[in-house]
Amino acid sequence: MNNFIKDGVTVIRNVLDQAWLDRLASAIENNMAAPGPHGKDHAEGGGAYFGDYVNWHRFPDFLNIAKDGPLGNLAAELMGASQVQFFHEHVLVKEPGNSSATPWHQDMPYYCLDCPKTVSLWVPLDPVGEVESLNFMKGSHKSKQTFMPRRFKTLEPLEGDTTDYAPFPEIDMESPDVVSFAVNPGDVLAFDFHTLHDAPANPTNTRRRAVSFRFVGEDARYVARPHDVSPPFPELGLKLNMNDALPEDWFPTVWQA
After folding, report:
1. Structural domain boundaries, residue 71
2. What is the β-pairing status of strands 49-53 and 197-199?
């Protein structure tokens, strides 16, 4: 677990028991049957690729697994936080034969927040081999530098003013700092919002269901970005001023010392 601070990414084995995995699988199926306003098939050909987020009000187990299950406490341990708020959940389901890869990116510049303590917990519901698993650039979180946020399909900058960001770096896939991890249901991939990562397509004959749970520590503050953000919380009705604390009704506290 200490690798999270050093590398910006680590894998923790056997975090979730079968009861939580069953509840999470049910929540995913219910979400897919009734997508939210931002739920859609992102596939560009081949098998479907369902994505949706910010549905924990409609499917409470997305929040329950963080608050009553082990994820909130795990997030606190990884971040060294005295308080953990739930930023959002992101359902990601790549069907067999899906050819849509998620390009290299970092999460922070897509978000309407700033926070020194952050972690995404990527929870698989199906076995994922090392080749099909997410790739990470170890240590890319250390500078806290933010790179150009891009549209995943076109690699064009997000709509709005993105001139303050550094150009997105070239990634050498042969670098020893590029790592990936085979994971099984119950395992958790943990990474910092600044850690560069990608997600390959799913050429296998099995589904790849996962939910990425995003958490922030006690110093999280709202940032009004001069460009589009994802999730689009301002469009969803969030009204805050620059540097406001994140409100509990939108971002519940799931763990506190």
Report:
1. 3-256
2. unpaired
